[in-house]
Amino acid sequence: MTHVAMTIAGSDSGGGAGIQADLKTFQELGVFGTSAITAVTAQNTLGVHGVWPLGGEAVTAQTDAVFGDFEVSAVKTGMLFSAEIIRAVARSLEEADRPALVVDPVMIAKGGANLLQQEAVDALAKELIPLAAVITPNIPEAEVLTGMDIRSESDMEKAGRSLLGMGARAVIVKGGHRTDERRASDLYMDRDGSRMVLSSERIHTKDTHGTGCTFSAALTAFLAAGQTLPDAAEGAKRFIQAAISDGLGIGSGHGPTNHWAYHRIGGMSAKGAITVES
Ligand SMILES: Nc1ncnc2c1ncn2[C@@H]1O[C@H](COP(=O)(O)OP(=O)(O)OP(=O)(O)O)[C@@H](O)[C@H]1O
Ligand SMILES: Cc1ncc(COP(=O)(O)O)c(N)n1
């Protein structure tokens, strides 16, 4: 059976993040990838050189075309840029046949470029997050959404609880930005009371462009293929660990991760690098 997944996100001309990272990840994980582009970015490993958002109507036309023809099992959102696009996406998801929704609340690119307008944060919180099966903020995004300072694992847990209160069924607070920690640890929490810490050795590399997109795309692909949320979260952590650990060394800035690595290294050897604690 062919499983169909969809990404609603921005285009990264450099190919390491956004729509391009998502489709590469879907392909590697054996699900058929479809997309709705929200914005075009002129981007490479050195930064974002320009952003051209689409209007809500153009985004709705893409989601209507895909939902009107395919049975989409899981959808992820990435860069949404404006409140107008967020509202268009929320409306089309409400009308669709309830695909599992992964919301990666992308706000700021590594080099500092704004990928979400300040005034759109409220629409993201009120209109999209309540529809999500899982949201995957990094620490700065979780801080913006909750208004909390996050420094420790217990802060991540408090923020996670506050994010669950915003209506998502589960949350993964990603710990990639806690660079003073020896391990890269992400906290998974859901409304049924499950909690786990997905942890891996922290790899010392500058090539981490698109880690967040790739992680959430892998999560979406595993959900599209029918895995449970906790299993999909663990699979996504294995996928990103392999992708970071086997870097490609391309571009002169923050290079992309290696979307081939999970299968090249083999899912099983990536397995040893991950620990899961409840
Ligand atoms: N240096 C690293 N070594 C191992 N895993 C990492 C590293 N950096 C990030 N990760 C993992 O990558 C995934 C994405 O986390 P991160 O917090 O970096 O997301 P993000 O901020 O959305 O991505 P980006 O920094 O690219 O915008 C998480 O599973 C995190 O643990
Ligand atoms: C089009 C686009 N979308 C998202 C990101 C953030 O990337 P990430 O947080 O995965 O590094 C990006 N740089 N460009």
Automatic annotation (TrEMBL):
Entries under InterPro entries matching the protein: HMP/HMP-P_kinase_dom, PM/HMP-P_kinase-1, Ribokinase-like
Pyridoxamine kinase/Phosphomethylpyrimidine kinase domain span: 12-258
Pathway: Cofactor biosynthesis; thiamine diphosphate biosynthesis; 4-amino-2-methyl-5-diphosphomethylpyrimidine from 5-amino-1-(5-phospho-D-ribosyl)imidazole: step 3/3; Cofactor biosynthesis; thiamine diphosphate biosynthesis; 4-amino-2-methyl-5-diphosphomethylpyrimidine from 5-amino-1-(5-phospho-D-ribosyl)imidazole: step 2/3
Example of a GO MF term: phosphomethylpyrimidine kinase activity
The keyword Transferase belongs to this UniProt entry's keyword annotation: yes
Keywords, in A-Z order: Kinase, Thiamine biosynthesis, Transferase
Catalytic activity: 4-amino-2-methyl-5-(phosphooxymethyl)pyrimidine + ATP = 4-amino-2-methyl-5-(diphosphooxymethyl)pyrimidine + ADP; 4-amino-5-hydroxymethyl-2-methylpyrimidine + ATP = 4-amino-2-methyl-5-(phosphooxymethyl)pyrimidine + ADP + H(+)
Protein name as annotated: Hydroxymethylpyrimidine/phosphomethylpyrimidine kinase
PANTHER family reported in the protein's UniProt record: HYDROXYMETHYLPYRIMIDINE_PHOSPHOMETHYLPYRIMIDINE KINASE THI20-RELATED (PTHR20858:SF17), PHOSPHOMETHYLPYRIMIDINE KINASE (PTHR20858)
UniProt keyword annotation of Isomerase present: no
Native source organism of the sequence: Bhargavaea ullalensis
Enzyme class name: transferase
SUPFAM superfamilies, alphabetized: Ribokinase-like (SSF53613)
Similarity comment: family membership: Belongs to the ThiD family.
